[in-house]
Amino acid sequence: MRLIIEPIVRVALLEDLGRAGDITTDAIVPEDTSVEAVIATRQPGIVAGLDAALLAFELIDPTLRIERCCRDGVRVSRGEKVARIAGRARGVLSAERTALNLLSRMSGIATATRALADAIAGTKAKIVCTRKTTPGLRVLEKEAVRHGGGANHRFGLDDAMLIKDNHIALAGGVRPALERARQCAGHLVKVELEVDTLDQLADALEIGIDAVLLDNMTPETMRRAVAMVDGRAITEASGRINLETAPAVAATGVDLISCGWITHSAPILDLGLDIA
Amino acid sequence: MRLIIEPIVRVALLEDLGRAGDITTDAIVPEDTSVEAVIATRQPGIVAGLDAALLAFELIDPTLRIERCCRDGVRVSRGEKVARIAGRARGVLSAERTALNLLSRMSGIATATRALADAIAGTKAKIVCTRKTTPGLRVLEKEAVRHGGGANHRFGLDDAMLIKDNHIALAGGVRPALERARQCAGHLVKVELEVDTLDQLADALEIGIDAVLLDNMTPETMRRAVAMVDGRAITEASGRINLETAPAVAATGVDLISCGWITHSAPILDLGLDIA
Amino acid sequence: MRLIIEPIVRVALLEDLGRAGDITTDAIVPEDTSVEAVIATRQPGIVAGLDAALLAFELIDPTLRIERCCRDGVRVSRGEKVARIAGRARGVLSAERTALNLLSRMSGIATATRALADAIAGTKAKIVCTRKTTPGLRVLEKEAVRHGGGANHRFGLDDAMLIKDNHIALAGGVRPALERARQCAGHLVKVELEVDTLDQLADALEIGIDAVLLDNMTPETMRRAVAMVDGRAITEASGRINLETAPAVAATGVDLISCGWITHSAPILDLGLDIA
Amino acid sequence: MRLIIEPIVRVALLEDLGRAGDITTDAIVPEDTSVEAVIATRQPGIVAGLDAALLAFELIDPTLRIERCCRDGVRVSRGEKVARIAGRARGVLSAERTALNLLSRMSGIATATRALADAIAGTKAKIVCTRKTTPGLRVLEKEAVRHGGGANHRFGLDDAMLIKDNHIALAGGVRPALERARQCAGHLVKVELEVDTLDQLADALEIGIDAVLLDNMTPETMRRAVAMVDGRAITEASGRINLETAPAVAATGVDLISCGWITHSAPILDLGLDIA
Amino acid sequence: MRLIIEPIVRVALLEDLGRAGDITTDAIVPEDTSVEAVIATRQPGIVAGLDAALLAFELIDPTLRIERCCRDGVRVSRGEKVARIAGRARGVLSAERTALNLLSRMSGIATATRALADAIAGTKAKIVCTRKTTPGLRVLEKEAVRHGGGANHRFGLDDAMLIKDNHIALAGGVRPALERARQCAGHLVKVELEVDTLDQLADALEIGIDAVLLDNMTPETMRRAVAMVDGRAITEASGRINLETAPAVAATGVDLISCGWITHSAPILDLGLDIA
Amino acid sequence: MRLIIEPIVRVALLEDLGRAGDITTDAIVPEDTSVEAVIATRQPGIVAGLDAALLAFELIDPTLRIERCCRDGVRVSRGEKVARIAGRARGVLSAERTALNLLSRMSGIATATRALADAIAGTKAKIVCTRKTTPGLRVLEKEAVRHGGGANHRFGLDDAMLIKDNHIALAGGVRPALERARQCAGHLVKVELEVDTLDQLADALEIGIDAVLLDNMTPETMRRAVAMVDGRAITEASGRINLETAPAVAATGVDLISCGWITHSAPILDLGLDIA
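YS: structure for the whole thing
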């Protein structure tokens, strides 16, 4: 939604324009020169972040004519056109880097998510992201994960409860932690618990829990955990998830596999702007 | 400088806290519980981003006692302590993720930069970053590059002129582009020109130029370019730079090697917060 | 949490100070005059909003000494002291109205909530608020509801799904609406459905639902709805809830009774500032 | 004026949308579904706040077609149409609550003001509001008071001087307080003095004053005060003003009757959005 | 008041620091180098703007020790010390220009105002400023005028009514303009009317008016206007006021002489920072 | 660029509108009254700031029709039309003062710069501005300098290094200062050194430097300095530059003459708005 992403794009543009703006373009390119430009992929992948990227051009120059050649979430091959921008050359060149920075990062996240999702295709498991996102860009990155075929975890500290090891330790155990959580949680707030052992899991199931995060368990233990849960809670696996480890984890029968890598360390998808 | 980074950290915290704040911690951890926490590495690398990361704790709870165990730019081994935070547990837990997101991303950039710098050690070349940074975090990422042993390119479109292929094309050649640039550039503004061919380089040198960006040249062509320049301009190589290709590029005698990868695609450095 | 409420209090103060500040106080009261002031109730009720109200004094003059005489959520009688502020008179007088506006509004909400909660004491039902809050003050008002013994509903459009009559109509029925919701909802997002008839309720229970909002039903129908649900979902009653109607609604066995009145129409609790 | 109210509406919308936006509507309602919606009253009253309410729809989706069926300040009966909004259903539903929260609160203030103004019709007195407004919404609430037939008092601490009991006490009496005020007040700044006794009033009239606030006087004393003033200053009554007490106060001959209740405690006017 | 001026100073500092901060000082001056600096005048005048100027140092580095050697409004000779700042050299140097820009501009305004006020000493007239202030700095400039011995006119379009020639023309004359103004003005809003002729003045006095602006009249006409007013309104002269013309204008008996020059065209007072 | 100047104009407008807006115009001028207005000069000079000034009208009322009669940088005579604005009278009157404040200040700067530039016409020297600009308006003022025929110095502390006397003193001499600067400066950052003596200049030239600031030298010494530099660095003169002194300074052969007066003390160019 534009109301939410516009402040992000505006900050990004102003960060690049600084005080004096694009002094190279303003010096060299006449005000009335027009161009037709194309944003195209330099490698195959999944596109995401188009709304934000194209908004960069619109904010720089509202008279630019912008046309999308594909939608977010689509798989593109190398050299495929993603969008066309036509109009005054100055605006196109001044917005180019900011637009590409947004688009290539989000597309990189979508592409990484898609690869992981494909690696576990055929199982019931789904890939979910974490809160290990780029500061300031969480909304865009969560959306890129969805376009890559993943699902979203919490958007922040306030929209669900996730009781972690430190919470359990400070509360003096799973039981008191869970009881305090239940007491405070609104009726539309779900509660998830990180469990490191099957004993903790047994406690949690006895009290009742919406979801359990099975952290850093071996596939073997995880399988037993899934069996113990037996559909009474959503099961989420986490810890050292990558393309190699994911299939074995998915095979344990967990509902979700969460992965920080897709947002904090995925390489960008290479995209460029070409002037016709 | 705090005046510059505080708005970034504040936005990052508020993005995570949302409207209701850390509902898990507030429900489970009593207001007067104190902890001693340690931020430690989970893998070796170079630390960067400490100012921003520790500011997250201070902004959440100014009564927290914060102690640095190392400085930005230092090489750390696996398990090494980076900082200590002591005080009210609620503040420590609520700021944890934002602080680690900032610290691990900047340390990842510093670590990647360091690796690239080490790969070309012994040559006269230096690694420089680009404008392919994370939207909103450019200041922090440029600093991380310096802590990794790299140097900074332009901070934005306004602090130096970089004449690229599209500018040259729209101006009708290297010569008119350079002349218009010279006419507009203030006396403290340097001008760099992207050259794809040795002919373009010859034109640029004839007119006079502060720096030339040798884009996507073979090592052989690059060597000839460096010879042509003969110290009359700074030479910068760019295009597909990585740990494998960098040494050969450095061996051509260029002054600088610019690399987008270190800011747009470097994996994070894994760091965690442990409660004693 | 201060990071969240400070912007609200700052806007409120600047709205009152305008450009020239408190011209009356600055003209009449010498800069070095000190006072001891007391905030006291003018009528009995429940206190809420102390953090925000006292922050107004701190933001105007950080040297003021502020002491709380009670905590949010406490029942106070007429004339009871709530807080003491001592220091420079100018700051006390300039912050007074903003502080009282915040405190009396939040205390009014807590008092109204408490009255409603008391009216249904002895039943299993709890009072919950709605999104019918004052624009800009939702975080403070939700907290005031908790201090009045109520619980919180959604904080916004993004932290849970509430499928209303218009959604059902546009989706073509309860079933397609619920299915689309289930498909998009993250695993930590609860889904609540507004039902106007027992047929809709039957559909919802068949598909599975976290909570149902029983809107504008007669106590008789509501009782049958609660029986149909039989613990498989949280039940929430809404529509024309007030001190007279609440007991009969609570007697139907619903889990929650939501009420917009406590945030959109509760009168303030009268509080004043007295200088010793 | 839009420049002034847009930031208020924007904050209100973002408070409701949070990070992820309207997840219910986005999941259930297709992007291209169109609706025609009507905002209508659920009870009789005076409409106010239309500019702000309709701006909420425009900011969410600028393509929505918005038509006003009445103007602010008009008396409406139960079920009367206030505005029509047509276009994409998603925007209509996502802006609905914010728009109604603004409209129903401002209409509630206008309705309460109108009732009080009607209660003193036939006298020379006018109803005026106070600074006891909702933090952040003062501009809108002052306008709603005008639409209800009331007049505005100061907009803040900076646009007129109002010397209150505490100022008098700290200055050492009415005389020194007034003299200091006169010395500092610009030539376009009016000075009003709160008087509790006729002696204070006599002092004020001797020195000269623009307006006097007769606080918490009996009608008998107030009548004598009005006689003493004899047109040399504007007279304003305050203290425990409501529908029952206002006529007697107005009958004393005062020019103005100020009332905090109309802004801090008026119940909202019930309005709803119906989809055709 | 700090709450009001801090945003102005913060914007000014960030405008100067840009993205990378003070790169010269950071490169050359070690972090732990301390200095003692003095802000001193380079020419005689009146000091103003000290709060804002010294806040620049505090915002850059809160550990700096700041001591005032004089107060705003004081007449200083050439070479006189205005303030002392001691502590880390980096902060002193980085804030220097912003602080001096604020201080020298405000002191220039105070000095110009003082000169004009001195030129009419012995008459009853006072110098007042206009709304012809620097965009963004009005609050500081209005204060500087007071420190120079002048008084303030309106702070903006909203705190008093000033009916100008265009208003009169569009209303169809002085009489309808004044009547509409009276009808809308709150009881604490003064109304001033710009009159170009004695006929207009007669109309205004007949209806009643708080102040009249005698615009561009000859001293002779102005004298007659003052006589006509005879104390029934405040009289303000405007139009081509400077050190030469002011005494004759003051001699006409007007109460106020307004002058745009003191805020829009006064040269700065030269001040510098010296390191001991 | 609009993205950069809009926040400045918005702050300026809101500063003038305050909370209640233009109460005079709203009271007197009917909503549907239209006017044709002309902005015209009251004295000859150079126009600058048109973008910002006309944006004020557009932000107040986007339906106003705005037509430029000249471009920034053009020399205008007395009474010449600069722009036409037609449409609703209210918007024209409410934006008038803010627009004129911006336009007359920037035109004043351009006019002063032009005069200084004309005074040294025929020499090779160019006029440059300094960082002694109005806090918050630097971008606009730097542009006005260019429209007056001057060139821009640094935009802030971060886009070039300027080593001043205090830096040299704290570093222990020209040599260590320059070496530290060279070590830290990015390859696109120029370094300028302020020199007070020819000995310092000799040191700087030996190490190598992009530009030297010859501060407060006599013409005789400056001439010798220019001869010593002999084209190896840009030479800039500063100190007590005005219309009388500039020609002699320019005659020394320096490349640039920097002058703070044109931004900090230039009188405005008188412009007014006339309604047809």
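YS: worth flagging: The mean pLDDT of chain E is 97.
IM: good catch. Also Residues 54 and 99 of chain E are 7 Å apart (CA to CA).
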